[in-house]
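Homework help board

Subject: predicted structure for assignment chain

Our instructor gave us this sequence and asked us to write out the predicted structure in C-alpha cell form, then describe one feature. I got the C-alpha cells but I'm not sure how to describe them. Can anyone check?
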Amino acid sequence: MGNEPDKWHWQEPGTAWKGIGIYHITMVVPSREPLLGTLVIPGNDPAQARVDATELGKKIVGIMFKISDFHPEVRLLQYCLMPDHLHTILYVTHQMPQGIRTVVRGFWQGAKKIGRQYSLSIHPNNIRDNERNLAVDPVFTEMPFIRPMSRRGQLRAMFRYVQMNPQRLATKRLMPGFFRVQSGIKIAGRTYSGVGNVALLQAECFAPVHVRRTMVDAAEHGDNQPLRDYMNGCVIAARNGTVMVSPFISPQERQVMEVLLREKLPFIYLADNGFREYYKPQDHLFDACAAGDLLILSPWEYDADKRHISRNDCVMLNKMAEEIADGWR
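My C-alpha cell output:
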C-alpha cells in the first residue's frame, strides 16, 4: 500500500455518508450456517488457515466485485470471505449522488436474490405459496452492517483484522476452551462471565493496576518519579508471578498492559461490557487469549447499544479489580 492511505480523505462523524470516505461492511448469514465457505487448517497450523468458497460464496464475492460497475466512485480495498459472513472495505473516492447505505443496500438486494436461488436449488420442496406468488426462505435477511472509518489508525487495524479472520477462526476451533464464554464465575461476592484462561484464578498472587490521579498530576507538574515507580513496580510484580488485574482504562494503565502483552505475562482484564454471541477478543488481546495468558471478565450482560465507558463504570471496575486481588490473596 505504500503511503497511499495518507492521501485518503476521512469521513467526518455526523455527515450524510455521501462524500469521500472509507467503510467496513459486514454481511452475515443470520443462521450462522457455514454456507459461504469451508475453513481449511493445513497441518493444524492456524497461520496457514484459509477459507475455500462454496458456490454460493463465489457468487456473493462476484456481486461484491460488481459494486464498482454500478458505482464507479466506489473502490474495493480488501475483502475476506468467511464460512458464515463476508468482510469488505470500500473506499468512496468522490462525492456520490446517493449515500453509502444505498450502495450497500443494492449489494444486499443482489445477495438476497442469489440466496433465494440457492435455497431453491437445495430445497426444491421448500417453496411457500402465499396465495399471490411463490417465495423461498431467504438466506440473507439482515442488512449488512456499515462502519465508517474516521481515523487513520482504524484503517490499518481494520486491514489486519480482516486479513487475520481465518487465522482467528482456526485458533478458536483448535482451542475452543479459551474462547468459550463461561458464566457463573464467582469472585469476592460477585458473579462474572469470562472468556480466556479461567485457571489464572488459581494463581498464588494477584495485584490491581490502578494509576491514581495524584500520580498523573504530579507527573504533569514535573515529578515523574511516583508514576514511573508505580508502573515499573506493576511490571516487575508480573515478571515475578503476580497476576495483574485491571480494566486498564487510563493511558498509563494501557502502557502497563502493552508490556504484559509484549512479554507474554498473564493478566486479568475487566471489560466494561458483557459478551455477545460469537464473541472474540479484540486484535491486541486475541493472541494472549489463545496462549492462555489472559482472562477477560465482565459482571454485566452484553449491551449492543453501549458505545462509551462512563465514569461510574470506571469507578466500579477499579473497585472490582481491588476486590478480585484482595479476595484471592
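Reply (TA_rk): Your C-alpha cells look well-formed. For the description, you could write something like this. Residues 100-122 form the longest helix (23 residues). That's the kind of observation they're looking for.
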